[in-house]
Amino acid sequence: MWYRIVFAVLVAGTLCGWLSATLSAQANDLIFPGDENWDPNIGSLVLTHTVHSLAFDQGYLYLGEGFGDGNKHIRRWDGANWQSIAANVDGSVLALVTAADGKLYAGGYFTQTGSCNPCKRVAVWDGTGWSPVGYTITGEVTALAIHDNKLYAGVFYEYPNPSRIKRWDGTGWINEPITDTISEFVSHPNGLFAAGKKIVIDEDSGDQITFPSLRVKRNDGWHDLGSGFANSNSNSLFSLAFYPSTVFTPTVGGDFIEPPRYLLTWSENGWTSIGKPDDDVLALAADSCGGLYVGGEFRKIENENYPFLAYYDGTDWHSLGDSFSPLPPSIEVLRFYHGYLAVGGVFTQTLGSQKHRNIALWTGRDCHSIAASGVYTFYAWRQPVVIEIATPGNLAQIRVQRFNRNHSAADEITHPNLRTGVYWQIEGLDSSGNAASGMVYTLTLPTVGFTPDAKDKICHYTNLAWDCAASRYDATRKTISRGGLTSFSDFTVGNDVGPTAVRVTAIHSQPARSSLMLIIGIITGALWIGSRRLHRRGSQAD
Asked: Would you say the pTM of this structure is higher than 0.85?
């Protein structure tokens, strides 16, 4: 009998060890989505112009058309339809920025926007019409920013005025003492950052030499942060972001080749390379989870295929660009807003039978730091997820990833009512990045494709089973809520699950958990065979 006891102990220990290790590894590791998280409706607009400029506000995604023949448009998307808010724009729209008061500012190389003539180089939309923002800028406006409630414009060239940054004081444009060409501004608590290029004259040859430029404006004026590029053979900075976005860590992309090329981030030791892309980085966007979206003309990062658009989560790279063509496409602009990433440039995106031109929208992850009990909203721009924390426990952060597909454990035979085409992975972390505990919260999810009623439930996937229950539904807002939750994992909304709470065991599980169960099965089988052999030997010995 001793071998049976040993066998039982080995099996129990193996199961517990593998299960504990695997679930622990999954506790703070959001899965990365596939092409299903690209919006299939955003491409209903057929664009023939390059998209250089994008901006979000609470209601809309705005798009400015750039290079290409014919008049351009400034358009907005409400989540379902596109509308032109400025037709007959007679030049490229290269910059868009939204203000806290709801106004939209546009900059570029134009003299009219819609019915506003003259609206030269910079114009403002108040929700109903366009107005000029001064008349004195003559050069091409390449960047716009609002910092400390002031509007700034980056201007490509104005002869004989050497200033390349202008500040609007409400009545006119004030020259800032910067002669560098600006590609992008970022407003940050540490100041207004400006990335671009500067031109110096070679003392020996008299030739013009272009170097990357990075400057910051603080209360005491402008400061040069680009000295690390001074002796390089590099050219321009095209993009700027703060990664992670919560600290002073500027990250820049461009066509520079020294120091390490194309993509750099600042640390206490100076500029260091991220990813080593093999071609130009034209666009950057930091998300709310400490990750970084990178776009451009590259094909590879760290010698692996990550074509044109990639996401860095701080440890691993993930590809988003497999659906883009022709070769080579060019990702020109990225904008992140409450979990959504807008992508513009020159490309065709193929999603099944649908083809999109020059504009795409991705549903990424959205995160919040947790300081106390309260209401926290994720994906606030569209179809929000709301978590109301009654007891925070040791929660320090909540991370949410939406998936626009059925959960792998919602199969057609046993769980057809859970196959609503969307689910959410939610994780709560403590200050050390481990799974949090001790929290109590209410979760409110949007329903997609149907109106909720009393038979619909929020279903929580935990311990390889679905646990479905609900506390209330809102048919007007098309949401459903569930209170008294004390753990995080995967959630979906079950349509017509039933009048009472149910618990249904899953036949299929998440891929990682399926692999775990396969490994456990193999080990169990091996141990069982070994025990039988020991049993036979023992019988023969007896």
From this structure: yes
